[in-house]
Amino acid sequence: MKKSMRKLTGFAAAGILAAGLLTGCGGSTEQTEAQTTAAAAAEGQTEAAGGEASQEAAADTGERRTLRVAMECAYAPYNWTQPDDSNGAVPIADSNEYAYGYDVMMAKKICEELGWDLEIVRLDWDSLIPAVTTGQADCSIAGQSITQERLQAVDFSEPYYYATIVTLVKEGSKYENATSVADLAGATCTSQQSTIWYDTCLPQIPDANILAATASAPDMLMSLNADKCDLVVTDQPTGKGALVAYPNFKMLEFGGGENDFQVTDEDINIGIAMKKGNTELKEAIDSVLSQMTADDFSAMMDEAISVQPLAN
User: Fold this and answer.
1) Does 125 share its domain with 150?
2) What is the CATH number of the domain that holds 176?
3) Which conformational region is residue 195 in: left (phi greater than 0), alpha (psi within -120 to 50 degrees), or beta?
4) Each residue of 93-114: pLDDT tens digit?
5) Global confidence as pTM
6) Are 153 and 136 members of one domain?
7) Residue 128: which H helix or E strand, with range?
8) Same domain for 79 and 114?
């Protein structure tokens, strides 16, 4: 399994802002000179390119732009629900609860860099893409891999995390010493619905007894803890978070190659989904992500794991 570490592509938006200031045709010489001066001032600004693009977008209404971000708020360490704003959690729209986790941390960083306000919209996993396509949310930041199937419905940012596939078993399981997918033969297993873990990985286990998919990641982990299955397959951040909540779990990593689950970069590169054709939003978000490295992503994820509540 190859883990993509390519440098993310950045996008400059300063030219867009300058063009936005030069509106209208004709007018007096004074007006032309004023427009030219305004354009020059815009070009001389030292703010980030993405921030300039966001200011242009907000100029239409004279108000700060609000980015409506959809997520489950139940998928630690990517995102979860908590009762207060500790550690920097953000209110969830239409509720008295708060959301936090890696996805919220990333959404906050994007909005801070672009000068936008942030609103978190809590939805079920299978409702995330439809919410983006219908405009219920501007984007989903929800631990979603950039698959060809999803790309038919939405556009994605450059990756904001690079995930690897892991297997979770309970300590004492007959599979706890497995060193390859082949060693999992005959296992009773499950994973979350509409994920590559369930659709792509589980069928690779020889003679597997694949149970119905669970509705959420927490349900998947509870199934394993309740001995309803021998193992679950997930990504590494979810696995690391599970070890915090369930100390009796053991995480198996097969190191890539022929002994591991066979997945593509699109399966394990995690992106931000947005409505097709929304190039302004994509370029603005990518302008922030382009300034971050895989090490930055890992450090942020480690921080999220360190503060996640045990109940998520």
Assistant:
1) yes
2) 3.40.190.10
3) beta
4) 999 999 999 999 999 999 999 9
5) 0.73
6) yes
7) helix 128-134
8) yes
